[in-house]
Every structure is written in structure tokens, then in C-alpha cells.
Design goal:
mainly alpha; 76% helix; 0% strand
């Protein structure tokens, strides 16, 4: 968020690798959840689901903040 506020396309240095890591880890978490459910390991599946939901929530909140127009200051 700091890099985006400074203007320009400097934020792409951080956004591109972060997006790739986000996709890979989310994919791995979904695969893990499917295996845990198939093995009927409900405790770990439940904890994993909570963690996955929190990660999705944080991603959603970050995207909202990222695309929100900048505040206008009155001097």
C-alpha cells in the first residue's frame, strides 16, 4: 500500500510476486483441505478451513483498500 500511495508503477515490484505467492499457497491449502476431508480428519480440516477463510477475508480487505480512491485533503 505504501508503494501505491507514492504513485507510479513502483508497487508492481511487490504486487506481482505477492500475487504469485498468494495463488500458489491458496491452491496448496485447498488441495490440503480436500485430502483432510477425504481422510475424515475433521479437526485439521476445520482449523484449515478457518485459516483459509481468514486468508480470503484479508485478501478481500486488501483489495478493497488497494482500489479505493485516495482521500481528498482540504487545506
Amino acid at each position: 500500500m505504501y508503494l501505491k500511495r507514492n504513485g507510479g508503477f513502483k508497487y508492481l515490484i511487490a504486487v506481482i510476486p505477492c500475487g504469485i505467492i498468494l495463488i500458489i499457497t491458496t491452491w496448496a491449502m485447498i488441495e490440503s483441505e480436500q485430502k483432510l476431508i477425504a481422510h475424515k480428519d475433521w479437526l485439521l480440516a476445520g482449523l484449515g478451513a478457518i485459516i483459509l477463510l481468514m486468508a480470503v477475508w484479508m485478501t478481500f480487505e486488501t483489495l478493497l483498500a488497494f482500489f479505493k480512491p485516495p482521500r481528498q485533503t482540504t487545506d
